[in-house]
Amino acid sequence: MAVVLGVFIMMVKFAAYYFTHSNTILTDALEAIVNIVAGAFALYSLFLSAKPKDLDHPYGHGKIEFLSAGFEGVLILIASLLIVWKAILGFVHPEPVAHMEAGAALIVVTGLGNFFLGLYLERKAKIYRSLILEADGKHLQTDGYISLGILIGVVVIWLTDMPVLDNVFAILAGLYVSITGYKLVRKSLQGIMDETDADIINPIVADLNQHRRDPWIDVHNLRVIQYGSTLHIDCHVTMPWYYTLEQTHTQIDDVAELINTHSEYPVEVFIHPDPCLPTSCPLCLMKDCKVRQHPFEKKVEWNFDNAIVNRKHQLREIHGIFDEKKG
Length: 327
Known about the structure:
This protein has 9 helices and 5 strands, in the order H-H-H-H-H-H-H-E-E-H-E-H-E-E. It is of the alpha+beta class. The chain has 2 domains: 2-192, Up-down Bundle (Alpha-lytic protease prodomain-like), CATH 1.20.1510.10; 198-325, Alpha-Beta Plaits, CATH 3.30.70.
């Protein structure tokens, strides 16, 4: 439905350009082509990412969502370059603009259409936990704001009767569109390269910190990889060295269950248990430990910085920062 509506919006925008010959309105029309091509690729990506895991793709097919976002971003950047180039040519070979009032009316229609379509896709993204729908929804809402800016430009050109402003507003709109494209490409590369995402890790660490149990002496080397709407998390949890395999496995299951309970995404959790060391004693919360070698001193609050480092936590403090011993 989104693709069909996108085609209709594109036709209306090109009709507005046909009536006005305005480069500013052409900016909006070229962006509409990007929306349709990107929407079609996103539709295919949704189909592919929904396929179950197989022997060739043990983590599923969710990474296609980042490729889809990158593809859309590249198209937007290309469109922005064409927009700016067309506007520069407009200074050299100016064309008269006309019927700006009709163009303004059509821009209002298409801008509202994009904005509400974006809201609809973003609502569906929350239901289906789809990164593709979320990215497309936010992009379309951004298009709605861009249309508002173009509408203001068209009205100014109409009221001032200064056609040269058409090229100026077109260049400004093209540069603004390029920012959207850059952000999409950047997000795509972040996902493909598995860049550490504090926005995902911080809530996970906060939940673990809030619901921590005494045997969970520390959590470190925490890493998160995103595959579409699924998160893959692995980490090390330091536990009492004297725990049996059964006791350790029970605690690991409880950590995994806690992460899944509080995450808005489906999560695969892989936990490596580490035995505690004497340096763990000053921060260990175990009250009935019979092999404690040092008295308890201080509870360490888990945070982004000490959770992602591949070291056991300890209380030797240097310059106000908790030093950590490799585990």
